[in-house]
Amino acid sequence: MTVNDDVFTNWMQREEIAESMIPIIGRLHRERDVTVLLHSRSLVNKSVVSILKTHRFARQIDGEELSVTETLPFLQALTAIDLGPSQIDIGMLAATYKTDDRGLSVAEFTAEAVSGATGPNKQERRESRDVVLYGFGRIGRLLARLLIEKAGSGNGLRLRAIVVRNSGSEDLVKRASLLRRDSIHGQFQGTITVDEANSRIVANGHEITVIYSDDPTSVDYTAYGINDAILIDNTGRWRDREGLSKHLRPGIAKVVLTAPGKGDVPNIVHGVNHDTIKPDEQILSCASCTTNAIVPPLKAMAEEYGVLRGHVETVHSFTNDQNLLDNYHSSDRRGRSAPLNMVITETGAASAVAKALPELKAPITGSSIRVPVPDVSIAILNLQLARETSREEVLDYLRNVSLTSPLKRQIDFISAPDAVSSDFIGSRHASIVDAGATKVDGDNAILYLWYDNEFGYSCQVVRVVQHVSGVEYPTYPAPAV
Fold first, then answer.
1. Going by DSSP bridges, is the β-strand pair 229-233/129-134 parallel, antiparallel, or unpaired?
2. Which three-class secondary structure state does DSSP give residue 30?
3. Under CATH, to which class is 129-259 assigned?
4. Which of 83, 132, 196, 325 is 20 to 30 Å apart from 52, CA to CA?
5. Class for domain 289-458, per CATH?
6. What is the pLDDT of residues 427-477, one digit of tens each?
C-alpha cells in the first residue's frame, strides 16, 4: 500500500465515523432538545463533509486539527446521560479532557462536565414561542431561514407569520421564491411550497401565514391563532418607543427591532449586555451589524488591557438603501451608484457603543466607506490601550477568548494568510479576528474584524430573541469567565 493509499484509507475511516455521528446528533436534538456544538459551531443537520471540515477548522484557532476519533467517544457518552435542553460543545469536552489529570474515563468526565443539564438541574423542555416577522427583506428572509432551521426539535421559536405590503399579483409566489433562492447565501436547506388558498408559505413543514398590511395598528394576531408572540421588525421604519409600540397588538408580547433604537429603546448586543434586559421590557433593539461586530472584541480588549480611546473605520458592503445607478437620494452620497463606487457615509456604531457598553468610558469615534461587494464587511478597530503589550500576547488572548470565553459565540478567530471577504459569507459569529492583519505597537492595537453584516447579524438577532423568550439554553462545558 502506498502512502497515498494510507491517506485515502484514513479519510474513508473518518467519513465512516462522521456518518455514525449524524443520527446521534439528530436524536439528541429532536428527542432531548440538545444542540451538539464543536467549538461553538452547531453540528445539527450537517453533512459528513461539513462535520469533517468543522473538525479541521479547529486547527485555525487551536493550533492543531481535531479528529472525529477524539470527539466521537464524548458524543456517545452523551447518549447515556439523561440530559435536559442544553448546548453541548464536544470540541471543548475533548480539549478539556486532555488537560485533566484525574484519570477519569470519558464517560465519567462527560457526566461531570454536563451535570448542570442533568438531574435536579435539568431544565424542562419549554413550549414553543410564536414569532412574527414584520417585513421580509434581506434580514427578514435570513431570520426566517434561521428560525426554521432551529425549530427541528419542535420546541423553541416557531415562525408563525410574516407581515408585508401586498405588491400585487403573484406576491406570495415571488416572496416564497426569494426565500427559496438567494444570490449570496444560496439555496434554502429544505422544501418550500405555496398555499395560495390560505395565504401561507410552507417551509420544512412549518406553516407561515402571510399577513398583508401597511398599518401595524390594524392587525389582530390572535385572529391567526398567534399568542404571546415576539414580533421582529426588520423594516427599520420605526425606531423609537412610540413608533414600535404600534406593534403591541393582540397576540404580540414583545417587539425586537433589527436596527439601532432611538431614545430610551435598549440597544442589545448578545454576549455583552443581553443579561441587562428587564423581564417586563416590551421593546428593544439589536443595534446594528457593525455595533455587534465591534462591541464584543472591544469589551474583551477593555477587560484585559483597558482602552483609553479608539476609532473604528468600517469598510462595508453596499446595501439596498443605495442606488444601483446614480439617482436622487435623501443622503448626499448614497445616491451615487453602489456597484461602481466607494461611498463615504456615516456610521452610528461608534456612538452606539456607549449604549451597549456603558462601563467603557473611553471615547470611540467612527466612520464608514461603502464598497462594491454585496455582503461581508470589515471593521478596523484602532485602540489606545491602558498598558503596553505585544502582538503575540494579543493574538493568544483573542484566540482563547474565541475558544473558551462567554464571548465565543460572538468572536471568531482566523489565522489563514490568504483570507478575503467572501470566505466569511455565512459566518454565524458577530465578528472574526484576522490574526494576520493584527498590528500591535506598545499601547496601540489595530484589530481587523470581518463580519457577515447580513447572516452573522441575523444570528445575533435570533440569540437575543431566544434569550427574551426563555429558550436560550445553557452551554456545557461552561465558558471560562
1. parallel
2. helix
3. alpha beta
4. 83
5. alpha beta
6. 999 999 999 999 999 999 999 999 999 999 999 999 999 999 987 788 899
